[in-house]
Amino acid sequence: MTDMTKKAILFDFDGVLAETMEDLFLAWQKAFLDFGVKIEREGYFPLEGMKLIHIAEKICGEKGIDSKNTQKIVELKNDYYLKNHEFKFYEGVDELIKYLKKTELLLGIISASPRKKLEKTVPKDFLSKFNVVLSGEDSERGKPHPDPYLNGAKKLGVSPENCIVVENAPLGISSAKSAGMYCVAICSTLNKTYLKEADEIVDNIKNLKETNIFKEILNF
Question: Which of 50, 77, 112, 210 has the lowest CB atom count within 10 Å?
Answer without folding.
Answer: 210
